[in-house]
Amino acid sequence: GEDVEQSLFLSVREGDSSVINCTYTDSSSTYLYWYKQEPGAGLQLLTYIFSNMDMKQDQRLTVLLNKKDKHLSLRIADTQTGDSAIYFCAESNNNNDMRFGAGTRLTVKP
Amino acid sequence: DVKVTQSSRYLVKRTGEKVFLECVQDMDHENMFWYRQDPGLGLRLIYFSYDVKMKEKGDIPEGYSVSREKKERFSLILESASTNQTSMYLCASSPNWKREFVDTQYFGPGTRLTVL
Question: Which of A22, A50, A100 to mutate to test the interface with B (most CBs of B within 10 A)?
Fold first, then answer.
């Protein structure tokens, strides 16, 4: 089946930038997403990007998409302790289902 | 705001028990999903439903069944719980992609199930 892969852990210092990377294999992906899961909570949609875009910025969040390499990244500027969470990359191709990565646990140290 | 609720946040059951996990959404979404989340494995799709009384197997349906009698409610059933079904279970819903430009899923808070 199609895969979505991301590293499991990332640790940064407060105030630094965080970059979470994701690769996927489905060349027909239409939408790519970043979800955030805080401890004890469900997944919350952070941002998304259409496959015909290469960048999207939303306040402290920047999403970069390299469609040729099937590589997606999420950059969080000025990372805060409240950003500590698990971040899931996901992709879909309009078939009413989504494929998720294993999640990257971001730890922000003061 | 879309709201997806799950009947329990925490559940402890014994091996062999029948377990029902309930999920309700209030946005008239056609599609509903059940995932399990395990460390290092991310989310894995168990079953999904794209209409009332319709169901489709996901990636790991073994040991589970589902029921969708009403549009707003999607139940996950463990006929005979086993210890390897100890996990976090997440329910999600989404509108049919033709209705909404962005195809995304809205998640409930999760049910952490422990099978002893």
Answer: A100
What's the Cα-to-Cα distance from A55 to each of A45, A52, A76, B79, B101, rounded to whole Å?
A: 17, 10, 14, 46, 19
Per-residue pLDDT tens digits for B26-41: 989 888 999 999 887 8
A interface test, pick of B2, B37, B112 with most A CB neighbours within 10 Å = B37
B103/A94 touch (CB, cutoff 8 Å), yes or no: yes
Give residue-wise pLDDT tens across range B44-90.
889 999 889 899 898 899 999 999 999 999 999 999 999 999 999 99
CB contact burial A72-92 (16+ within 10 A = b; e otherwise): bbbbbeebeeebbbbbbbbbb
Contact criterion met (CB < 8 Å) for B48 and A97: yes
Beta strands in chain B (DSSP E): 4-6, 10-13, 19-25, 31-38, 42-49, 56-57, 65-70, 73-78, 87-94, 106-107, 111-115
Residue corresponding to tokens 């079904």: B85
Partners of B48 on chain A (C-beta within 8 Å) are 96-97
Which of A40, A42, A48 lies at the smallest CB-CB distance from B90? Answer: A42
Q: Are B13 and B115 in contact (CB under 8 A)?
A: yes
